[in-house]
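Example 3.2
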Amino acid sequence: MVDGILKKHWPLLLALLGVFGLSLIYSTPTHAAPVVGFNPGLIIDDGIFTNSDSMSPNDIQLFLNSKVVTCKTNGVQPHNYPQTTFTCLKDYRENGKLASQIIYDVAKEFTINPQVLLTLLQKEQSLVTDTWPSDSQYRIATGYGCPDSTPGVCDSKYYGFTNQVSWAARMFRSIMNNSSGWYTPYVLGNNTIYYNPGPYDNANSRYFGRFGTRADIQYCGSTVVNIQNRATQALYNYTPYQPNQAALNAGWAAAPPCGAYGNRNFYQYFTDWFGSTTTRYTWSTVSQNAYYDDSKTLPVNMGTLAAGERYYLTVSIKNTGNVTWNKLGQNPVNLGTTDAKDRVSTFCDPTWINKSPGCNRIASLKEYTVAPGQIGSFEFWITAPSTGSYNELFAPVMEGVTWMGNGSISFPAIVSPSYYTSAITGQYAYTNSTKQTYADIRSLTPGTKYYLGIDLKNTGNVTWNKLGPNPVNLGTTDAKDRVSPFCDSTWINSNPGCNRISSLKEYTVAPGQIGSFEFWVTAPSTGSYNENYLPVVEGKNWMQSPSATFSIGVAPYTWSVGKQSVYIDSSKTTLADINNLKPNTRYYTATEIKNTGNVTWNKLGQNPTSLGTSNARDRTSLICDTTWLACNRPNLIHEYSIGPGQTGSYEFWIKTPASTGALSESFTPLVEGQNWMGSSSITLNLKVQ
């Protein structure tokens, strides 16, 4: 127990009741296995001692419930016991607040692990496991203000459960902060720590001269202890003695004449209930990889990085320590730069945790928690610096606690100047975007749309991107950025440039992968053409590669007129005399036409072949009939399709005008939406009598 908060109180701290007996009086475990792992210079790590996030109020309550299933709230107790009703710690309230909430609130206020406070309550008054605790146990719950130098006499200003827990935590926090306002005779480093405050009287089974002179203390001896951290210093401030080997060998039992048990019992309760008091922040590398992008589908050779380019790295490590890692909270686990620790990395990327100005925290833990034995991972972008050889070293760090382990994760890298090159792996032309029918680019038809494509392998060291500040597009070359006569309305800049054909089909194409450009062209007037195209990295440079060349020939639609006939009706059995037609009368005409070109004519579809008025084109005809498509479109071709070399026909009704005289009507075939089939005409010379 302790009472002092200022230096003047220190003489009262010669001995603490918890050193000797209270943790043995109440609910002492029965097993006597020797204590293993107790280190007098490092009883508990600072990180564990101050981990105020270790338990929630509900966690604390469940823990207390598990330690006392049934409280002896009433019943016969030892003779002359002044109390007959009892409240166990799990049910205890003060000012309407449960003990579990009080412990949690104090732990958060002073940033002390609630597990430490639970252990202290057990060590001092056995309150955690006691099934019939007395009022006095709650009054001096942590033994604060009750020095062994005045047995049975406590300072009433520290009475009360909340008061006791708060003062204990306040003292711990002051020692942790190395506060000058709180006296401690111990320092980090070598200190003389006694085994016991006085000799033991075997005849009378008691300590002799327990509160006597310094000579009495020296009867049991001491050792020099190298106190390694503030948490251990704080525990000695509370209980200024260490267990000797006999006390450690005794387990939970007493070991007279010189046994001292306070710090031993603290260690045993804590390790039994919550695990190791000393943390091992250790890990081992499971895997590490580098990729061109965050899809992690194409690995990159770290010896072939390109200056200024981004790469995606992954690291998997196994938690070989005894502390759970957390992504969030007061002490998150992040990946930091090492060699030296917290150095500014030349591979810093805008996505790093502290990209400016630190550039020493790369990424947070991907998983929310990684328990001992589990595997955690970090994934992050890097941006390659200027050319040269590098060895990037990273290691996990538990923020606010420690760097983890002594090793580093090494990423050796060689950075070269960036270069964009490509190799043609295929080029093709189709009649449409379904890519089912090949088009013969040596004989295209004027005004007709065709679907072309180029496949290119990325032979450079930089990933191509469809989007972003430097997209890769297909441009016209020979000369670069020339206006193409094959420009189509679907091109990137069809108006006015006509020099950017299409964007990359894929979103990214890493070195070694194949990307493609697919696009429409509209055939211009007849002639022979060499269309040259080359990828360009917008805002940077044209690729240093050969152009893709399409040697294209454009030929016109050609046809010839065959038999022409005019009938009195659509049965086509009786010819009409075209030089003696009646006014205001309907006649049926049929004209054979041969496809002498290289393109199939179609009656249906997006671009049907019809007959239009010509000389001038699209004029209104004098012999228009109500069955016409329009008075400038007599009809579609009669057959559903007419291939090159085949003969088809146009058949339609005409109606002579009311006036008499000679008529000469001209018509020309056309592909709707594309072009007229040349300048020749089909002529009907008629005479109305």
